[in-house]
Write a structure and sequence with these properties.
The structure is a homodimer. Chain A has about 220 residues and is α/β, with parallel strands linked by helices. Chain A folds into two domains: about 70 residues, Arc Repressor Mutant, subunit A, CATH 1.10.10.10; about 120 residues, NAD(P)-binding Rossmann-like Domain (Rossmann fold), CATH 3.40.50. In chain A, about 40% of the residues lie in helices and about 20% in strands. In chain A, the strands form three sheets. A seven-stranded mixed β-sheet of chain A has the order 6-7-5-4-8-9-11, sandwiched between helices. A two-stranded antiparallel sheet of chain A has the order 1-10. In chain A, helix 5 links the parallel strand 4 and strand 5. In chain A, helix 1 runs antiparallel to helix 4 and helix 2 packs across helix 3. The N terminus of chain A is likely disordered. The interface between A and B is large, with 72 and 72 residues.
Chain lengths: ~220, ~220
């Protein structure tokens, strides 16, 4: 067991060179490319992607260079080809089953989020221990008792577990998810999860986001 | 007007060298230091901070070097002194007034979050346009009609605005916040906000977090 990686670091389990910042920018480039596709634009330059993404064209070219050769010098990138390659790189050519554990405000927000299914992330079930929560439907997604989680993971095809429980329950839930074969966890609980090698954890810590702002206010 | 910066980039308005990743790690180091403080530990090495934070001791020393000289060679850092310095660097020696615009699931989760007040972030009010939401109390925080936002910003001391509205309302709300003197925005809406130079925007985009996981699954 090792401590799970924290944000904005390289995923050292799976790839040695590609940072989370690069992956995040690839997601952003894909969004811009899809806007261009929707408007019928055929080609785009690294300068345009850089401007939209708030970065430099050198960074755009570097981000893409990890994954092979793209574009023609002086002609830019084909919008549709690059979008297709990015969807492939980001693993968006398939769909993912998601479970959300903890159906409080944050968990419910994840279940009810409108944009995930469009990207291929399908929330199959939510889990809670609160009697008032269990049995409810969140936009067609059933809230089940957390006791069912392990059994359900054996029966259903789930790729990603979202932990939105109180901090003291998070490690136990992470272990159940790992036990059930889950290899990717999105963690909202403000604790460092210990997971075996090979399990990816992305932490979303809203206190850290606020502190980035207080840092900015302090150091402006 | 310019497009707001996206995540995991440097805050180029306010500081040229210090990346968001560094700021995030400083927040994490502070958490570890506070755990050590609570346990009465007096000194800590860069190696220990590195191990806890999933990074290298060279990175720890580099992160801290932006802000002056810390620690004594061979003796490590004084836990209490470094914690105090980090609270200062991160702007946590004072409190911040926060408003949350959009009192849906995500906005409510922000209002009800237990950890923010402990860090000095006080949610003063929430805003919505929905008749069912307006007038409710969320853990003592009143949900007001969004029409009141501009007037309230003139009267109350608010530092940080959280945007948790539907995407189509986000830019308008950002402009109201800026008009009301807000210099720091936490944005959950999946749109790039255009804000004037000098206004910080941190985007939290949960689709991007899921895509970081699908990337990891695809490229494991």
């Amino acid at each position: 067991m090792r401590l799970a990686r924290l944000d904005c670091e390289t995923f050292h389990n799976t790839m040695s060179k590609v940072s989370e910042s690069t992956v995040r920018r690839l997601s952003l480039y894909l969004r811009f490319l899809e806007e261009f596709e929707a408007h019928g634009t055929q080609t785009v330059s690294s300068e345009t992607l850089a401007r939209l993404g708030g970065t430099t064209s050198a960074q755009v070219r570097k981000d893409l260079s990890f994954f092979g050769s793209f574009g023609k010098r002086g002609l830019g990138y084909s919008v549709s080809e690059l979008a297709e390659r990015l969807r492939d790189i980001l693993g968006l050519q398939r769909s993912y089953g998601v479970v959300v554990v903890g159906a409080g405000k944050m968990g419910s927000a994840m279940v009810l989020h409108g944009g995930f299914a469009r990207r291929g992330f399908f929330v199959k079930a939510a889990y809670d221990v609160d009697e008032h929560a269990v049995g409810r439907q969140l936009n067609g997604v059933e809230v089940r008792h957390a006791d069912q989680l392990e059994r359900d993971l054996e029966r259903e095809s789930i790729d990603i577990g979202v932990i939105a429980t109180p901090p003291e329950a998070a490690q136990r839930i992470a272990e159940q998810l790992v036990q059930g074969g889950i290899k990717a966890i999105l963690n909202f609980a403000p604790v460092r999860l210990a997971v075996p090698e090979g399990v990816l954890v992305k932490d979303v810590n809203l206190s850290l986001e606020l502190e980035a702002l207080s840092y900015g206010i302090r150091n402006r």
